[in-house]
Amino acid sequence: MTLLDPAAGRADPASVKGKRRARVIKTYRNPLTGKIVQTKSGNNLSLRAWRVQFGVEEVESWVQF
Questions:
Q1: Is residue 4 included in any domain, yes or no?
Q2: 3-class secondary-structure state, position 11
Q3: How many domains does the chain have?
Q4: CA distance to 1, 8, 9, 12, per residue, from 4 (Å)
Q5: Measuring CA to CA, which residue among 59, 1, 2 is closest to residue 33?
Q6: What is the torsional sign of CA 38, 41, 47, 49?
Q7: 1 partner at 20 to 30 Å CA-CA among 17, 23, 32, 41?
């Protein structure tokens, strides 16, 4: 009977929403100034300024676990 029902086996679109994994909070510590920034995204103002000043690879090495 599932062959005749095109919606069978599909998840309801409303139930699929919200199933994303929560973003992890990353903590960056600038070794020169000691300033600590906690963020879930890369759009933090301080973080963007550090990336311009020091480079992306350098700033990513500052992540605290």
A1: no
A2: coil
A3: 1
A4: 6, 9, 12, 18
A5: 59
A6: negative
A7: 17
> Which strands form 36-39's sheet, in the order they lie side by side?
36-39, 26-29, 63-64
Q: Which amino acid is at 50?
A: W
**pLDDT by 10s per residue, the chain, length 65:** 566 766 666 666 666 667 899 999 999 999 999 999 999 988 999 999 999 999 999 999 999 98
Position 43, amino acid? N
E strands, 1-65, in order: 26-29, 36-39, 63-64
Return the DSSP state at 27. E
